[in-house]
Specification:
The complex is a heterodimer of chains A (107) and B (122). Chain A is an all-beta fold. Chain A has no helices and 11 strands. In chain A, β5 and β6 form a beta hairpin. Chain B is mostly beta strands and 122 residues long. Chain B has no helices and 11 strands. In chain B, the strands form 2 sheets. In chain B, strands 2, 4, 5, 6, 9, 10 and 11 form a 7-stranded mixed β-sheet that branches. In chain B, strands 1-3-8-7 form a 4-stranded antiparallel β-sheet, with no helix packed on it. The chains are: A mainly beta (107), B mainly beta (122).
Chain lengths: 107, 122
């Protein structure tokens, strides 16, 4: 089973700042990595798939990069609605696995 | 628009079974794989398995083998996830989630149900 480790666990920033979230895989997942956003009481929302492709309707301020074992989700300029928990997920091997999440909170 | 609507919250005793439904609308139900993902209170996400609504074929995470059964009713565009021999640590929100590509298993999740809270309590 592929282990995904996200860092930091919590990121405290202000609106308008740039956010950089990391996800590291225990073995190569090629580019088969997605990012999800989850707000309290809601289901996750797909943001990025295959490492760098924005899902339908996702604003351009969200971008993903990386391949192999190291991946990054960048939010270029934080909007108030972006404060949430973010998860990475790999589909390289079954079972699909998720990282433990990064909580992006308002500073 | 694509919608996945799940059944309501359940409270079960240890050792019992629970069956959660997921009714799909707004797309061709038999054309897209459906997954089940759970989330324990305050915890992360855990993939449980998938079902092919067209063939009924399934694949379960090893952790749940022998306890989980995923089925579907194509006449009602509804998928089901039954978990048996419930334990306290099965308390979680259970989500159904659609795979994004038509007739292809990708392994991402583009549309999600609202979640069903299953509480295991004596």
């Amino acid at each position: 089973e592929i282990l995904l480790t996200q860092s930091p666990a919590t990121l405290s920033l202000s609106a308008g700042e740039r956010a950089t979230l990391s996800c590291r895989a225990s073995q190569s997942v090629s580019s088969y990595l997605a990012w999800y956003q989850q707000k309290p009481g809601q289901a996750p929302r797909l943001l990025i798939y295959d490492a760098s492709n924005r899902a339908t309707g996702i604003p351009a301020r969200f971008s993903g990069s990386g391949s192999g074992t190291d991946f990054t989700l960048t939010i270029s300029s934080l909007e108030p609605e972006d404060f949430a928990v973010y998860y990475c997920q790999q589909r390289r091997n079954w079972p699909n696995t998720f990282g433990q999440g990064t909580k992006l909170e308002i500073k | 628009q694509v919608q996945l609507v799940q059944s309501g919250a359940e409270v079960k005793k240890p050792g019992a079974s629970v069956k959660v439904s997921c009714k799909a609308s707004g797309y061709t139900f038999t054309g897209y794989y459906l997954h089940w993902v759970r989330q324990a209170p305050g915890q992360g996400l855990e993939w449980m398995g998938w079902i092919n609504p067209n063939s009924g074929g399934t694949n379960y995470a090893q952790k749940f083998q022998g306890r989980v059964t995923m089925t579907r009713d194509t006449s009602n565009n509804t998928a089901y996830m039954e978990l048996s021999r419930l334990r306290f640590d099965d308390t979680a929100v259970y989500y159904c989630a659609r795979d994004p590509d038509y007739d292809t298993l990708i392994g991402y999740f583009d549309y999600w149900g609202q979640g069903t809270l299953v509480t295991v309590s004596s």
